[in-house]
């Protein structure tokens, strides 16, 4: 029996959207594994390994494994971001890019700008939010071409997938290296070259971002969220959370009330994940 037309059409989901200002040289750090980005003004660089692609005002890109790409403002820039995900196996790890998307798909851009996807919209009208995702994803597919960037390092892709699929596991560097069939030193070197992070720093970021989603969604105790995130104690979780965000989980939860996840934590000040982060608030709608 051949698959139906609906089975063949990729389904898209959008969890939230925001507009932010990024200073020249500042990174955009994806909150989820995939990301849609539209440059409103200025220019943004998409990097993979030693290669870089420049996006100018009006250009858009979809990154299925966004954390494996460096996203940096080449000039002071304003960008629209959406937590867009394509629900289809085998999706390319290389970015999809549309030059002049803002002009080619002005109606889609205007709709997302005037009616952003908020937690209230996802709760009260989930069908509308899902339709947003299909509309934006279909617009990208209809206009896009695979960007002229190399695919992320296969070793890095393998390890990143393990960490993102099971961040709660007590991973060790030796286990990750064995899974990728390389030595620990080679793994760290290749991971840093591709992402700017060591594997365990990458894991910490994934864990904290998942925990931020839980904090944003409800009132579960911090200790329970810490346990689910893979931390042995609430104290260890709080230390890791503060190192990444500059705030405690409780204070962050209070400040995030009423905002989308992307507004609450759209980006951080440095990709090194070694020092407390400065929070950059989303710009006005």
Automatic annotation (TrEMBL):
Claim: Transcription regulation is one of the keywords in the record: yes
PROSITE patterns with a match to the protein in the record: HTH_ARAC_FAMILY_1, HTH_ARAC_FAMILY_2
InterPro entries to which the protein is assigned, alphabetical: AraC_XylS_family_regulators, Homeodomain-like_sf, HTH_AraC, HTH_AraC-typ_CS
Keyword match DNA-binding: yes
Pfam families xrefs: HTH_18 (PF12833)
GO molecular function: DNA-binding transcription factor activity; sequence-specific DNA binding
Domain HTH araC/xylS-type: residue ranges: 157-255
SMART domains, per the entry: HTH_ARAC (SM00342)
Alphabetically ordered keywords of this record: DNA-binding, Transcription, Transcription regulation
Protein name stated in the entry: AraC family transcriptional regulator
Naturally occurring in which organism (per UniProt): Brachybacterium phenoliresistens
């Amino acid at each position: 029996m051949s698959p139906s037309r609906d089975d063949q059409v990729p389904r898209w989901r959008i969890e939230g959207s925001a507009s932010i200002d990024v200073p020249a040289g500042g990174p955009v750090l994806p909150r989820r594994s995939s990301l849609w980005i539209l440059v409103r003004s200025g220019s943004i660089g998409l990097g993979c390994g030693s290669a870089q692609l420049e996006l100018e005002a009006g250009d858009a890109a979809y990154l299925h494994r966004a954390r494996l790409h460096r996203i940096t403002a080449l000039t002071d820039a304003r960008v629209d971001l959406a937590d867009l995900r394509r629900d289809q196996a085998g999706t390319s790890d290389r970015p999809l890019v549309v030059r002049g998307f803002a002009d080619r798909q002005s109606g889609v851009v205007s709709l997302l700008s005037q009616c952003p996807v908020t937690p209230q919209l996802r709760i009260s009208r989930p069908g509308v939010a899902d339709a947003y995702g299909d509309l934006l994803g279909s617009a990208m597919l209809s206009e896009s071409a695979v960007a002229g960037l190399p695919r992320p390092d296969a070793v890095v892709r393998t390890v990143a997938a393990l960490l993102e699929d099971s961040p709660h596991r007590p991973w060790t560097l030796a286990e990750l290296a064995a899974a990728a069939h390389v030595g620990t030193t080679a793994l760290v070197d290749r991971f840093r070259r591709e992402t700017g992070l060591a594997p365990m720093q990458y894991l910490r970021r994934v864990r904290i971002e998942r925990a931020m989603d839980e904090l944003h969604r409800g009132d579960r105790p911090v200790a329970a969220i810490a346990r689910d995130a893979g931390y042995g104690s609430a104290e260890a979780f709080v230390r890791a959370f503060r190192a990444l965000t500059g705030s405690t989980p409780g204070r962050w939860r209070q400040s995030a009330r009423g905002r989308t996840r992307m507004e609450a934590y759209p980006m951080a000040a440095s990709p090194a994940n070694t020092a407390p982060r400065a929070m950059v608030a989303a710009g006005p709608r």
